[in-house]
Design brief:
This protein has 15 helices and no strands. By secondary structure, the chain is mainly α. It has a domain of 74 residues. Helix 9 packs antiparallel against helix 14 and helix 13 crosses helix 14.
């Protein structure tokens, strides 16, 4: 018994020694510390910022690639807001909304046809009288060509032209006029094709306005639907105020330009004045484009004094519109500061060209309204505001 007991007691330590856990290899080195809350928050901010940058890049790429469709849609939205009073008037007369929308579209098409007909008749009359201006135009072109030739000769004297070395073959690529004509025709056909969608888009936007607005609100979560409804209402109010303000300023500039051109004796002053006044509303390029119509129609009898007088009239009108009329009539409707407006014109002009300059202010004002109603973006809305 004692031997057995001794045997068991001798074997027990052996078994115990064999079952001693072996330390893992990882414990031999420094054990990694757990990530702190500050580091987790920092990584989360970096990740969210990266996702935001990627999302912004994707949105900008889509806006650039689909600019034709987006511009067409936004222009249709502005036209729909301009025609909305006609639909509201038809509803007061107990007419269906679809019928009122059709009447509004027909009014728009009739107005465009009238403007085109008057412009075409005036252009045809101007072209018929163009031979009278040929001598004057030829003199102006000759003066421009002589001055350009002097500049070229002066440049050659200062910077002599490099003579090609012997044995050097100079290759000049000649442009094919058929390719240019074909590409221009394709571009014009694309514009006409896209423009043909405008009446249909305007009609559906007017007839399905309430449905689209309610459906858009339903896309948001229940707790955000009230905010979305208020935001859409403020954007609609802003766009309508922007359009009304531009119409008022355009009429003021058109009437004052017409009176000034009548005093100066500009031909077709009753048409040229309105065109010059309305074109002057375009940002940056407006003042240049507003000078061209009165100068072109006055080419036959134009003198230096008349040219300076036309430039003075357009410049004064443009300065008054930008510094007095715009802040008073449009500034309080869009609630954007001048720096934000300038940056918006640069950005949308870079992205969409000339149409971007026209749509820059309402688009930026709509973005500001959205920022004002999103908790995390209110600081950006305050930066854009006055």
């Amino acid at each position: 018994m004692e031997e057995t007991t001794g045997t068991i007691s001798d074997e027990t330590p052996e078994t115990t020694d064999l079952r001693v856990p072996i330390p893992p290899v990882a414990e031999s080195g420094p054990r990694p510390a757990l990530m702190s809350d500050a580091e987790r928050r920092r990584h989360a901010r970096i990740q969210s910022s990266s996702v935001a940058v990627i999302a912004i890049g994707c949105v900008l790429t889509m806006m650039y690639l689909a600019k034709s469709v987006l511009i067409l849609t936004l222009v249709s939205v502005l036209i729909a807001f301009m025609l909305a009073p006609i639909v509201e008037l038809s509803q007061r007369m107990h007419l269906p909304r679809s019928l009122g929308s059709l009447i509004a579209v027909l009014v728009m098409c009739s107005a465009l046809y009238g403007v085109f007909y008057v412009s075409y008749s005036q252009a045809d009359e101007f072209v018929s009288k163009l031979p009278r201006y040929s001598e004057r135009i030829r003199d102006v072109l000759n003066q421009v060509r002589l001055r350009a030739e002097r500049v070229r000769q002066t440049t050659q004297n200062v910077l002599p032209e490099d003579k090609p070395e012997k044995g050097t073959l100079t290759v000049r690529q000649s442009s094919n006029w058929m390719d240019d004509l074909t590409s221009g025709a394709l571009g014009a056909s694309e514009v006409v094709l896209l423009g043909a969608f405008v009446p249909f888009l305007v009609f559906f936007m007017l007839s399905w306005q309430e449905h689209v607005r309610a459906s858009t609100v339903m896309l948001f979560a229940m707790e955000n639907r009230n905010t979305a409804y208020v935001t859409l209402g403020l954007i609609s109010q802003m766009i309508r105020g922007f359009i009304v303000g531009n119409v008022v300023i355009g009429l003021i500039l058109g009437i004052t330009s017409t009176i000034a051109f009548w005093i100066l004796g500009v031909p077709y002053f009753y048409v040229i004045g309105m065109i010059s006044g309305i074109v002057s509303l375009l940002p940056y390029l407006g003042i240049v484009l507003a000078i061209l119509p009165p100068v072109v129609v006055s080419m036959r009898t134009l003198t230096v004094t008349d040219f300076l007088a036309i430039v003075a009239v357009v410049a004064i009108s443009h300065v008054i519109a930008l510094n007095l009329l715009y802040p008073k009539i449009i500034g309080r409707r869009v609630q954007l500061n001048p720096l934000a407006v300038t940056l918006a014109l640069l950005f949308w002009g870079w992205l969409w060209g000339a149409m971007g300059l026209i749509l820059a202010v309402p688009l930026t004002a709509a973005v500001k309204i959205i920022f004002d109603h999103v908790k995390g973006l209110r600081s950006w809305g305050n930066w854009l505001g006055e």
